[in-house]
Write a structure and sequence with these properties.
253 residues; alpha/beta; Rossmann fold; 9 helices; 47% helix; elongated
Length: 253
């Protein structure tokens, strides 16, 4: 019966064409699909590169009223350790002094540039303006939501900035993801409990932390600045690895 079976592969060839001369045509590739795949790979690489090179932003805010000159000088000397602790850090200086003066610098990426900014500034008598500092941090966060800043504030007074007026702005910072680290230099007077209470409330509302430091021990402030710089770039995990960070960690939300 095998002889009676004809296979379906029997094909009549045109004269002069041998079976070995036959070629199989491959399906044409759509060049558009190659371009789409390339674009997707490029975009993925760009996103990955941005994530790797994302710079931390830290607002370094100080009370520059008359009583603050010794602490200002100490902060100017110790701020270098923020930059030594981490890379990819941009810092903006914010300060208030005198009657209604509240200034901000551009963003700087080196301790030398920040020190140069601070060197030419002297403290002047005046009232505290913490509300302006918090409002500025809020505006920075809204202007660049993909890279929200961390706020460091160094001061010793609350004065006219009543906590009831500051609380709504602090709460807004918390909603925006801006954590405030409130560093308090106490003077052991009647105002200290009020100042501590206000600073703690601002830290709580933003999900940040409060800490007292001794102006006669510069290493304490330097340690705090190193810890917050590490947090700004590397998050809680980076903060946890720093000496003296326990008091900050237990408060963070």
């Amino acid at each position: 019966m095998a002889d009676d079976i004809k296979t379906r592969h029997d094909t009549k060839l045109a004269p002069g064409i041998a079976p070995g001369d036959l070629t199989v045509k491959k399906a044409k590739r759509d060049p558009g699909s190659d371009i789409d795949a390339f674009v997707q790979r490029t975009r993925a690489m760009q996103v990955a590169n941005r994530a790797q090179t994302q710079r931390g932003r830290l607002i370094f805010a100080l009370d520059a009223t008359a009583s603050r000159q010794p602490t200002w000088d100490m902060a100017m000397q110790t701020q270098v350790e923020m930059f030594e602790e981490v890379s990819n850090l941009d810092v903006q200086l914010v300060y208030y002094r005198g009657v209604g003066e509240c200034q901000k610098s551009g963003w700087v990426s080196s301790s030398n540039r920040l020190a140069n900014l601070m060197t030419g500034i002297t403290c002047h008598a005046g009232n505290t303006q913490i509300g302006k500092v918090l409002a500025h941090a809020r505006d920075e966060a809204k202007a660049k939501p993909a890279c929200k800043p961390t706020l460091i504030f160094i001061g010793d007074a609350i004065e006219g900035d009543n906590i009831d007026a500051l609380a709504p702005i602090a709460a807004e910072l918390g909603e925006l993801g801006v954590k405030a680290f409130m560093f308090h230099e106490p003077h052991h007077d009647d105002d200290d409990p009020k100042v501590e209470s206000a600073f703690r409330e601002i830290a709580r509302l933003t999900g940040g932390a409060y800490c007292r430091f001794d102006a006669s021990a510069p290493h304490q402030l330097a340690q705090l600045l190193r810890a917050v710089a590490a947090f700004t770039v590397g998050g809680v995990k980076a903060l946890a690895a720093k000496p003296g960070a326990v008091k900050l960690l237990e408060q963070l939300k």
